[in-house]
Amino acid sequence: MTALVVDDITVSYGRLTALRGVTLTVEEGEILFVTGPNGAGKSTLLSAIAGVVPPRSGSIMIDGAGIAGAAPEDIARRGFSLVPEGRNVFGALTIEENLKVGTGMRADRRTI
Description:
Blueprint: E1 2-13, E2 16-27, H1 42-50, E3 57-62, E4 65-66, H2 72-77, H3 95-101
Antiparallel strand pairs: 1-2, 1-3, 3-4
């Protein structure tokens, strides 16, 4: 089963296009590694999937449901949340504990 589909998304910050035509698919159980130099768009890609920044065009689907433009909390309920590095995490918590913060609103405890 396909867990995540990002199809031809473009994300802009004002006049600056940060992502252009990004497409990827992640199957259930698959691990995807995103790498690149500073400014390549890694954080923007993850922020778009998590609903933090809206894509200007394209589509994003989790488990077959379109989520582009959905609120971050609605996307987290579907199983995708973003734990950014550095200043945007709960510093007193471990990585695992930061990740679990996003699971508090999920009803499907077995899959967490």
